[in-house]
Amino acid sequence: MARIVVVGAGVGGLATAARLAATGHQVTVLERAGTVGGKLGRYVRDTPAGAFHFDTGPSLLTLPDVFHDLFEATGAKLDEYLDLAPVDPIVRHVFPGGGPALDSCADPAEFAARIGAAFGDRAAADWQRLWRRAARVWQASHRDILRRPIDSPLDLAALAWRLGDLAAIGPGRTLRGLGRRHLSDPRLRMLLDRYATYTGADPRRAPAALVAVPYAELTFGGWYLRGGLGTLADALLTRCLDLGVVVRTDATVTRIDAAGGRVHGVRLRGVTAPIPADVVVANVDALTLYRDLLPSPRRLTGLTDRSLAGFVLLLGLTGDSGLAHHNVFFPGDYDAEFDAVFGHPGRGVRARPAADPTVFVTVADDPVVRPAGHEAWFVLVNAPRHGTATGAVDWRRPGLAEAYADRVLDVLAERGVDVRDRLVFREVRTPADLDDATGAPGGSIYGTAGGLLRPANRGPAHGLWLVGGSSHPGGGLPMVTLSAQIVADDIGPAW
Question: DSSP string spanning 329-376?
């Protein structure tokens, strides 16, 4: 039985802790915040009409089998803890210039029919050809990448790729290029580009292999957890406690002791004596780990290429908007948005808030999260990370956040959804706020900007592992949960 310390109580940390405790290890989780969940945050606002509840992080659960596997591996059933509800449409896409919206769903034939009805038979046929390619990419990724350690580019190169898999993955090709090659309708290209932002990347630079992301979502479906996705953190915490895991909040780890090339424990702020450990699992951003907790300048290479961040409005509204659960309102010029969000550091062009951004609106039809006759809106806009570098924005600059919140509401009104006269309240969350709340450097949602190769799960010292969205296999609830499985399997059982 190993003494294991997990640094961070995000979904990856809690999932790893539960798996390791179920196999006989002595596990302690240390979390800097006062609550668990990490980026799976929550906010409650009381009003005379009643309480509004918001998820401030992920708003959609995909690949539900990953979570069923997690709970079964720890001796429980997912349905005993969480109430999953399928979402249809998964996303309602509203395109510039008017015209029909497009509702996505988890039935490929039905989705192709919806594309045909909205955009014509040629667009539907284009999508079906792309879909066959996406299936090959998904199968290769799921088989060879998502459930196994990938420690270096050599590991990827050494995989026994089938020739058909390599042709589908298209090494060196971008997601934007893939869309231009296969999709004649600009609205479908825009839809495909959006999935690069699921990994925090620019579709003009993101690898074509990310076509596996829409395939997974639109094959296995999108799901909502009644009561909000934050209930997943509650369920994982309960599972950990039932398995004997010690969970300490308000416990900030300041350093990992790794003298002699192996871990010995961690040090806490305000505590003199170190906490001994045979194994440390770091559920923190890889940049934070290698810059602050285990200073390793060599490992910082590539980690400063940060993913995009998010600017968020939490809106309490009167009435009923008639929107779907998830809605995307696209801009007239998608490239202008990416130019703004990422900037061009090499040319000295600073990042800035996009003037005409894509706006994501989540409206849960769940009486638990809003008073009767009201709606609780989570509004997200792609945004540059917080900071003073060329590729960042100082979101603490006086007046900026409120002015941009006004702009986002104006953009919604321009796109036919004017809620300014229905506001009960609004709360603003900037990338700087996410940095403060979760320790995500600059508020970057996914760590490094998207790609197939993330920081490895095995750390540079014996007994050190990385888990979570900034390490392999990437960000998003299912990927983070798969990273926990990879790490727990690598550490192995106590017996």
Answer: E--S-HHHHHHHHH-BGGGTBPP---SS--EEEEE---TTSS-TTEEE
